[in-house]
Amino acid sequence: MQGILNFDRNDPDEEKSFQRACKADVVHIVLWDISQDIFRGFRKHGYPDKRLNDLLEGEHGEAICEVLENLEGKFYELLKEYNIEID
């Protein structure tokens, strides 16, 4: 089975679409990295950056954790809404 994407690269809008299609793998990697480096680090084992861990353990740590939880929820909601699988 084959799939073919066809773009008129002389049309500026289609050229943009072509460039986006060419970068789909990179976008997938970035989304995966966000899920792992930002959200999983927060939930599982902390961050390699000492400054971030210090913020989470500081006086406003509870509020920061709540913000991160909400951002993570929104991130995964958007992935689901647009039917994007990153696993």
What this model shows, in words?
The chain has helices at 12-22, 24-45, 50-57, 61-81. Helix content is 71%, strand content 0%. It has a domain at 58-87.
Strand and helix layout:
Layout: H1 12-22, H2 24-45, H3 50-57, H4 61-81
Helix pairs in contact: 3-4
**How widely separated are the two ends?**
23 Å
Secondary structural class: mainly alpha
Mean pLDDT across residues = 92
**Quantity of strands, as a count:** 0
How many strands, which pairing sense, and closed or not: the largest β-sheet?
none
In percent, how helical is the residue content? over 70%
How do the SSEs run, as a string of H and E?
HHHH
> What percentage of the residues does DSSP assign to strands (E)?
under 5%
In short:
The chain is mostly helical and 87 residues long. The chain has helices at residues 12-22, 24-45, 50-57, 61-81. The chain is 71% helix and 0% strand.
List the defining traits of the structure above.
87 residues
